[in-house]
Amino acid sequence: MSSLHLGRRVDPHTFAPGDEELRLPVDRLVRHAVCVGMTGSGKTGLCVGLLEEVASTGVPVIAIDPKGDLANLALAFRDHRAEDFAPWVDPAEAARQGVGVDELADRTARRWREGLEAWGVDDARIARFVDGTRVTIHTPGSTAGVPVDVLAMLDAPPSGLVDDAEGLAAYVSSTVGALLGLVGVEADPVQDPQAVVLARLLTDAWTAGRTLGLEGLLPALVDPPFDKVGFFPVDDFFPRKERLALAMKLNAVAAAPSFASWREGAPLDVDALLAP
Asked: Residue 144: exposed, middle, or buried by beta-carbon count in 10 A (0-12, 13-18, 19+)?
């Protein structure tokens, strides 16, 4: 596919859609794309359409979706039957309209089908998307979708990354930043003692082929297996009292019942997310 079908061009004065298709050459999206518009202008709809077009070509997509709007990508049906929509119809909305759930599901199915036909989206295009894509919704901290174990970030990375000094340093820095973020700490990865000591602990363990896990990292944070950080004794660089305080904060978060769902599920593995 040399271009992505985004809809039809509209008259700039009347905003009525014309007959000319609006297509975006795929080479325009080699690196970045930004969608700008006022509230209600259709930014989300445009992005959903763009992702559908890309996914239909077999390109894997990872969409970070804080609002949850892009989860609608999973609502794709070959035949647009009422029973396809019934599980997703809001009973309260049906009651407000004075109809049953089945009736509202039928109306919704017909509206979707007619809307797609009006924009030239035929059954073949719908089938290509439905049959050729697998939409998985990952929900860290929730079991509404596929849960994600955020603490799996402490597992030792693949040996190929460990052997890449620059790549490992970047990976350690991002892991330490995420870990400190759990307790509301924004630390300079180069100067902050909290970040420097945690990075040293992870780097030493991972280069030795060991996975610390939080249960191994916290005791090591309190009593590090090294005496110096740079040219200074570790207790001068990052006093034990402060190390213990940080370990206690991390432990409290990990032990909190509300955090349990953040420790469930598969690790956040990009290679696994992109697997067909």
From this structure: exposed
What are the tens digits of pLDDT across the range 258-276?
Answer: 888 888 888 877 777 777 6
- Matching residue, tokens 């006093």: 239
The two beta strands, 266-267 and 148-149, are parallel
> For residues 212-232, b (16+ Cβ closer than 10 Å) or e, as one string?
bebeebbebbeebeeeebeee
Q: Which two tokens stand for residue 78?
A: 């070959």
Q: Per the structure block, which two tokens stand in for 241? A: 């009292």
Of the candidates 257, 255, 262, 254, the residue with the CA atom closest to the CA atom of residue 143: 262
Pairing of strands 232-233, 148-149: unpaired
Q: Which residue, 170, 171, 187, is CA-closest to 242?
A: 187
121-to-22, 30, 53, 54, 272 alpha-carbon distances in Å = 13, 26, 11, 15, 31
Confidence band (pLDDT; 50, 70, 90) for 247?
very high
Neighbour-count burial for 111-135, b at 16+ CB within 10 Å, e otherwise: ebbeeeeeeebeeeebeebeeebeb
